[in-house]
Amino acid sequence: MVKAELYYAGDRSKGFVIRGHAGAAEPGQDLVCASISALTQTALLGLDAFLTVKPVWKMGNDGYLECWLSEGLSPADLEKAEVIMGTLELGLKSIEEGYGQYLKVSKRRWTVCCSK
Q1: Residue 7, CB half-sphere, CA atoms under 13 Å: how many?
Q2: Based on the structure, what is the number of domains in the chain?
Q3: Which of 15, 24, 26, 106 has its CA 20 to 30 A from that of 70?
Q4: Is the pTM of this model over 0.70?
Q5: Domain for residue 116, yes or no?
């Protein structure tokens, strides 16, 4: 199962952590896992391309991806980040609605200990 944690400070997005594999099919054939990967990696690419202060991210083995918005974003960057992060949330929740046995999306309160 994939666990997606979306972190917020109040109503502001701070980042996300994705862990695991869906296990809906054999590796290389798992469309649920591929869909989650496409959404999360596209969100990371968008944040990296469109924000003037790049996010901090780490990708690991076994379906691990974490991404944190940097401090000190301008109002324009904050707006862009919210659109990208909001779109990520919509996409993940849509997958969860149809394939909840393979994906759990959680909203979490961000604290300093959460980010790297």
Answers
A1: 16
A2: 1
A3: 106
A4: yes
A5: no
φ, ψ of residue 42 in degrees (nearest 5): -70, -40
Q: Which two tokens stand for residue 86?
A: 């909001």
- CATH assignment of the domain containing 79: 3.30.70.1490
Going from the C-alpha of 31 to that of each of 24, 37, 93, the distances in angstroms are 8, 10, 16
Contacts of 33 (CB under 8 A, 6+ apart): 2, 21, 22, 23, 24, 63, 102
**Could you tell me if 21 and 63 are in contact, meaning their C-beta atoms sit under 8 angstroms apart?**
yes
pLDDT digits (tens), the chain, 116 positions: 999 999 999 999 999 999 999 999 998 899 999 999 999 999 999 999 999 999 999 999 888 999 999 999 999 999 999 999 999 999 999 999 999 999 999 999 988 765 55
**Residue 48 contacts by C-beta under 8 Å, 6 or more apart in sequence?**
54, 55, 57
Asked whether residue 74 is assigned to any structural domain, the reply reads yes
Contact between 14 and 55 (Cβ < 8 Å): no
Amino acid identity of residue 105, one-letter, is: V
